[in-house]
């Protein structure tokens, strides 16, 4: 029985690894296959000749390589800025919406939640006009603000869920001690909220990493262009370079992968309930 | 441990708000400054000159050029969004031949002055001319040229270069029946722009006409071309995979050795000599595109050009840049650094004679046959028209429509579009 | 007095951001959708009321795209939810390298959608892509399968690709939900002699439900807004286009801003119906 259970687990593990990592492995194989062998009519999975040309080109300081790494740097910058702006605003909104009584609370909360379903396409042209009028194009701060507007509903909702598990008595006790609202927030809520903050930060990181349409319209200069756009540009019109694109795709995943690995503990801890003990 | 972490987070969270405020101020001043003698140039990677070349221009004219490299597909989208906001994305922009009609109708391009001498030397300039106004100057040439794999042809017992489309069809049948090549004809059939142009050049080289004077399709010519494609598909002379793989992949079957005949981009002249891209180096010969009763007397060009935007605040400097960029001297240099194919026939001739372009075959001869299939310039509804055309062709390829039905489907849409104008 | 202002004060940044960057733009887009506004006719922009909407609702192309959107929504929602929940249960099993597995599970999420589309194109490549290599190699077919040449197989492939990218978030949220369930509940159930399926039905599933709700909301939004993957796999072909592709084509390719905005509004309308439905479930509280 125990043996069977173990075998079942290993089987599941293999299926999981195959389905999750398979596409990456295949992309890696393509990235070391010579261009003309890529479309060859053969069922061989591995190329006869291995070429490191694509990686040499990307790491060797070529223009494409420089663009790719500039793109990664730009994406990281946007992630950092979005976190700096987004987390405090989400925290404030979540605290207010989950812990304060005031007129219109429910209305504001629902209005915020419903914006989750708005597609980028519905806002991008007017947004562009605003950005042009105020000369905000190609500016990481304002770009991040747009990102924040799209994450606010989900993150605020997750945070207020977390806050709602914090016992009311804790807060009341503090108020009796003479603490103001701000002090309650700073002394009681923030210290026990680090799991949700980190969870939210990871979600923001990953979603910002994937942005494409918004930066394409609002920030596509070399100084602000995120890596997703850079990689897509390796594949346009007549210059389709599958191998190079595959190699770039793999490099693109590395920063978020490392981050996820380091903060793996916090991937879910913040979203759990009952994790806060009074 | 936990307490430390918490206080650390607290500090960050608090300083964050302050920082964010500062950030906005610092960033706000950037990007709004513009020097008087500086222009922006938005182009895809293959059009970006080297730094030395740009420095030279700056030294010569005192105009600084800020290059904004954008993916080709994205340039149009950016241009559109910007124009909808009444803005210039850049002073000088890439203008693909297929965009000219709409850019002209939308009034985004500044007319340029070109001497008659240049006009005579640059046949593709016609494509960028509307109502007598030159809207952009072509810098990279691309016209339809045919290629065949001489070794494969010989193996199948065909010694002569195909002269007509009928010859090509027969040769492909022989190549297939002798088992030399399974799918000898490479053509784009996927639902994408390249498929539209394939139908255009096929009809154009067959009958010298694609569109009527009023902008509608010429039924006789286009139906004949569609039927020719249908035959290729039904006899599986094209690879079934080409129905859904990208047009470029279909073309690349020539250099991959799995196709023996291609009518396609001029870039395959150099691709076919590059061992990294081509597994059949030395076997491919560029030839004049076939026609109905002999070689075709026309060919279609799909060039890219540079234009100056109407919203630009530095029009004079921008025009100077375009002039410099498309000069004979620069075309030579750009061929060397960016492998751009010159749009000036005189430069092309010089490069071929100097052996700078190898395995040129009929390249120069074909360039002299360039002509536009659009009687009234590129229409403003080109994108919508092309969408209707490639989708109909793709449906025919997938067996959902016959050649006649495919024609009817695109004709209905195009007649409607042409009528709206 | 002060107490009454404070909440609004704290919400000011949020309200400002949402107002300027979300609500104002969607109002503006609505006003565009009531205009005849073609970029190729810059001197002929005028108000036409709901004509754009009427024209769209009359066109066959819209209903075709709508079908595709709905088909994708259903397939992606089911696929992601079922596989996501299964994955969360698998990840819940404690082993030494649980954390690493979790990080691995997140990888597909870290891939920008467009890159994701390209990656899968290599796999479902019509000639000798990975899938065909495998199938031919194992002798299951002798000719390469053309994956992308019929409407339903194409949409099916698109769904697989989107599901693959959406599973991580779903699994993460569900795992959080699973781990929030107090151990005591399971112990009590065991003492009562409940069997595994029963425990799942009575405890695990109902208590995970609100978390699945978040995942379902987020997945639906993703599914309605699938764009990059379709374009990467089949370009702008009629075959696989959904309403979002239709909206993009109308706006950016055919340069009809009025009609394009109207199509976008119809997408939003569809999403909003779902949104209201989800709001009710999101607002529910859980009791353990």
From TrEMBL, chain A:
<keyword id="KW-0812">Transmembrane</keyword>
<protein>
    <submittedName>
        <fullName>Carbohydrate ABC transporter membrane protein 2 (CUT1 family)</fullName>
    </submittedName>
</protein>
<keyword id="KW-0762">Sugar transport</keyword>
<dbReference type="InterPro" id="IPR035906">
    <property type="entry name" value="MetI-like_sf"/>
</dbReference>
<dbReference type="GO" id="GO:0005886">
    <property type="term" value="C:plasma membrane"/>
</dbReference>
<comment type="similarity">
    <text>Belongs to the binding-protein-dependent transport system permease family. MalFG subfamily.</text>
</comment>
<dbReference type="GO" id="GO:0055085">
    <property type="term" value="P:transmembrane transport"/>
</dbReference>
<dbReference type="InterPro" id="IPR000515">
    <property type="entry name" value="MetI-like"/>
</dbReference>
<feature type="transmembrane region" description="Helical">
    <location>
        <begin position="184"/>
        <end position="206"/>
    </location>
</feature>
<feature type="transmembrane region" description="Helical">
    <location>
        <begin position="140"/>
        <end position="163"/>
    </location>
</feature>
<keyword id="KW-1003">Cell membrane</keyword>
<keyword id="KW-1133">Transmembrane helix</keyword>
<dbReference type="InterPro" id="IPR050901">
    <property type="entry name" value="BP-dep_ABC_trans_perm"/>
</dbReference>
<feature type="transmembrane region" description="Helical">
    <location>
        <begin position="240"/>
        <end position="263"/>
    </location>
</feature>
<keyword id="KW-0813">Transport</keyword>
UniProtKB/TrEMBL annotation, chain B:
<keyword id="KW-0813">Transport</keyword>
<comment type="similarity">
    <text>Belongs to the bacterial solute-binding protein 1 family.</text>
</comment>
<protein>
    <submittedName>
        <fullName>Carbohydrate ABC transporter substrate-binding protein (CUT1 family)</fullName>
    </submittedName>
</protein>
<dbReference type="InterPro" id="IPR050490">
    <property type="entry name" value="Bact_solute-bd_prot1"/>
</dbReference>
<dbReference type="InterPro" id="IPR006059">
    <property type="entry name" value="SBP"/>
</dbReference>
<dbReference type="Pfam" id="PF01547">
    <property type="entry name" value="SBP_bac_1"/>
</dbReference>
<feature type="signal peptide">
    <location>
        <begin position="1"/>
        <end position="20"/>
    </location>
</feature>
<keyword id="KW-0732">Signal</keyword>
UniProtKB/TrEMBL annotation, chain C:
<keyword id="KW-0472">Membrane</keyword>
<protein>
    <submittedName>
        <fullName>Carbohydrate ABC transporter membrane protein 1 (CUT1 family)</fullName>
    </submittedName>
</protein>
<feature type="transmembrane region" description="Helical">
    <location>
        <begin position="100"/>
        <end position="123"/>
    </location>
</feature>
<keyword id="KW-1133">Transmembrane helix</keyword>
<dbReference type="InterPro" id="IPR000515">
    <property type="entry name" value="MetI-like"/>
</dbReference>
<keyword id="KW-0813">Transport</keyword>
<keyword id="KW-1003">Cell membrane</keyword>
<dbReference type="GO" id="GO:0055085">
    <property type="term" value="P:transmembrane transport"/>
</dbReference>
<feature type="transmembrane region" description="Helical">
    <location>
        <begin position="7"/>
        <end position="27"/>
    </location>
</feature>
<feature type="domain" description="ABC transmembrane type-1">
    <location>
        <begin position="66"/>
        <end position="278"/>
    </location>
</feature>
<comment type="similarity">
    <text>Belongs to the binding-protein-dependent transport system permease family.</text>
</comment>
<keyword id="KW-0812">Transmembrane</keyword>
<dbReference type="Pfam" id="PF00528">
    <property type="entry name" value="BPD_transp_1"/>
</dbReference>
<dbReference type="GO" id="GO:0005886">
    <property type="term" value="C:plasma membrane"/>
</dbReference>
<feature type="transmembrane region" description="Helical">
    <location>
        <begin position="207"/>
        <end position="227"/>
    </location>
</feature>
